[in-house]
């Protein structure tokens, strides 16, 4: 019997919880240009549908309903937006040193204009735009927040291109 060869898995989607689903869908579609795959919908706790059963499996019994919307990036990565009526409405404190997800990243070659648009829609620029190879290559990055305090990063170039030259060697 031969051993199976492992292969890189593709990224399917990310789930983000927000306090206002309409405002989140507006931000992510108008600022990021992401496609709306499914408009905001209400999911109720019930055992008569597959989605109801799945949500009980995931969230347990301590909920009655929530809102969900599905978006997609230009490269087909899904963004699932959740809004729970009884959840905490503020983003947790930024704690990158603790175990868990602390950001996601998107790519846009026009980083300056995107940051301006994020700020205009109520988001925040967390740091100056930085270059990986100053005066050598045009690879830039910056951490920002959406209007809900969710931290994400912007790259001007692909992840592979940015790191393939060894960004930490100089």
TrEMBL record:
Domain (VOC): give its ranges: 10-157
Q: Which domain of life is it from?
A: Bacteria
Which SUPFAM superfamilies does this entry report, sorted A to Z?
Glyoxalase/Bleomycin resistance protein/Dihydroxybiphenyl dioxygenase
Keywords linked to the UniProt accession: Metal-binding
Any one Pfam family match given in the protein's UniProt record, by short name: Glyoxalase
Q: Which InterPro entries does UniProt cross-reference here?
A: Glyas_Bleomycin-R_OHBP_Dase, Glyas_Fos-R_dOase_dom, MMCE/EMCE_epimerase, VOC_core
Q: What is this protein called?
A: VOC family protein
Originating species: Formosa undariae
**Species lineage:** Bacteria, Pseudomonadati, Bacteroidota, Flavobacteriia, Flavobacteriales
């Amino acid at each position: 019997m031969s051993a199976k060869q492992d292969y890189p898995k593709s990224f399917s989607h990310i789930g983000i919880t927000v306090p206002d689903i309409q405002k989140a869908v507006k931000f992510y579609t108008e600022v990021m240009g992401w496609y709306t795959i499914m408009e905001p919908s209400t999911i109720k706790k019930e055992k008569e549908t597959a989605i109801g059963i799945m949500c009980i499996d995931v969230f347990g019994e301590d909920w009655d309903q929530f809102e969900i919307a599905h978006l997609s990036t230009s490269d087909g990565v899904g963004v699932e937006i959740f809004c729970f009526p009884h959840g905490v409405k503020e983003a947790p404190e930024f704690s990158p040193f603790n175990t868990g997800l602390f950001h996601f990243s998107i790519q846009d070659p026009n980083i300056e204009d995107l940051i301006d648009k994020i700020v205009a829609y109520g988001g925040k620029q967390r740091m100056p735009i930085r270059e990986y190879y100053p005066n050598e290559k045009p690879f830039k990055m910056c951490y920002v927040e959406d209007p809900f305090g969710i931290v994400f990063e912007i790259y001007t170039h692909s992840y592979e291109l940015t790191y393939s030259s060894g960004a930490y060697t100089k």
